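ARCHIVE CARD
SHELF: 3
SLOT: left
DATA:
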Amino acid sequence: MPRAARRPAFVILGLTVALVGAVMAGVAFGAVPVSLADIVGAVTRALSGRGGSGANDALVLGLRIPRVAMAALVGACLSGAGVLYQALFKNALADPYILGVSAGAGLGAVLALALGGVGAIAAVLVPASAFVGATLTMMLVVAIATRAGRMETLSLLLAGVAVSYTLAALTSFAMVMRRETMARIVFWMMGGLQSATWQYVAVVGVMLVAGLSLPLAYSRELDIILLGDERAGQLGVDVKRFERMVLASASLMVAAAVSVAGLIGFVGLMTPHMTRLVLGPRHRLLLPASVIAGAIVMVLADLFARVVLAPVELPVGIVTALAGGPVFVWLLMRERRRSL
């Protein structure tokens, strides 16, 4: 295998090993540590159909593994959406949270929760409402930021911030109107995975696969779109149709993440950018590597949120914001230097 081809393979392998390690740590550590032997025993008994009834089995199978799996899926969704937005807008600062897409998905999810979505109904209604909110928000931000067929970085960011504030106000209004659900929704909006269940894991997993399928199949077109709309059209890409497909795929993944974990910022900004620095811009490698890296980041962020003040648990959105804020400032300064 040529040396140039070996490096991406090693990076993907390294990320996969790191994800396995992060998952094991996420299951093992918490307010109540669980040994590796107990984890293996619980999983083995579950797979063999013997299903232990001990406290460790209930903790591992009923709480820790669904939560860690949910964290990995949420991180993968946000990072995958970040890659697509950054490619579509040709902007390293594009991110579901900064563009207001997360706020739109959050408003849709809050409306579904405020209207009484619970149980099996919530597992379908909340993600569906979040998807509608995310899609409409992205369309609005793009329309505001586009002038004479051109979209500038500053206009895109300002439009995202303005729309986010407006949607946050509407979300607050919805909570005030349904005060009995306010405390639950406020804590959910801070970002957290306390409500993780196998049912939600299945729903988010399906939405992640659906959101990634077409972009992975059209990774060459994602590379071409970076050359500009005119050049991409000359190379045979139906730009408008392709943009709609990418927006729908990204919005589906954002909706999946927000509907179960609330508003979690900067994962879709940090992870794709750092992965791009290592692997370059080719989306055939960048997209799957970023998805794995996003899963790692989210699992570790959730682990930190659970153990740093144990038994008190921090909202994971606080952890990602503290880590992502400085990265966003650095990227903004880097983009400014490039434009000079």
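SLOT: right
DATA:
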Amino acid sequence: MHGHFPPNHSGSSMKKVAFEVALKGKKQIAKGTMAFVFEKPKGFHFRAGQHIRMTLIGPPASPPAEQSEAARETDSEGNSRFFSLANSPQEKELVIALRMRDTAFKRTLRNMQIGDKVRIEILLDSPHGSFAMHDDSSIPAVFLIGGIGIVPAFSMIKDAIERKLPHKIFLFYSNRRPEDAAFLGELKNLAKQNPSFKLISTMTEVQKSAVAWRGETGYIDYEMLKRYVDDLKSPIYYISGLPEMVSSMKTMLTDEGISENNIRAEEFTGFNLNEIQNSTNQNRKSHFALIAVVLVIFVVAVLHFFAASSVFKSGIDTPFLKNPIFYFMIVLILIVIPFKFKHLLGFMNSKRKK
């Protein structure tokens, strides 16, 4: 998780414990995704699916070219982030995995040297109803996961297999392309070795992949679930991914009569493709608006020049024709009228649809 504790994980009454841990290794595990391995301190205990708060200890000064931007990002977001752990509680190291963006925090993390330390905090207790495997092994667990949301699910599935829990586990794992799917190879191996664990991977943009893909394609939907899970009303559902994905999965399940009491959710924030796309669109609109203003000024100048020349040659004294504001108003009216007409048509069409 990148961002904040979910509401049911927070609260001043919950006790936390803190440690300083050293970096042991880092590697790229998917396109744009890195894993960071830290030492596991003595006395550190957690339940699979839990997350930690990580704080940079004295982040180094940025290079001069990046200094002002990094300082602003640090001021606005701080030196702490929340991350789900990707390792199982039985493993001897702590692992986090995250999509890499060009922020001050992630640049510092990426540039850390082996042995550099960070501070981590974790809740001593995992609250009831949190993102952790349910105890009743007669109830199947169905994971609906998008992208980097795989991190807590990976920890929970490994933990269940390592402890030989009898739970029947289904993982529906959605990515754009195989190259984007973190831990996909490890999950395939776990599924081969454990008949109680079923992996269903699906790709939404497989046509853009350089890797051959023979699995499911398209977004996770109820029809896909029905092909693999016999009784869809009985499982506990674990949903993890970007907020939009989590919201759509919740809606899909509740619309099909799944009780909200059987749904657990974890939202990953801080890497939103829609926000990036919207930002790009806004930049394009601003660019086009600037071009439009320049064109209007150019047209006004040309009209004024020719009109003033004609007036001068004719000898007729018409002051308003010599005034550039007159031509600016004409051009403005020619722009506004079509826009207003288009807006009116859209409004009338929307009325008809209703």
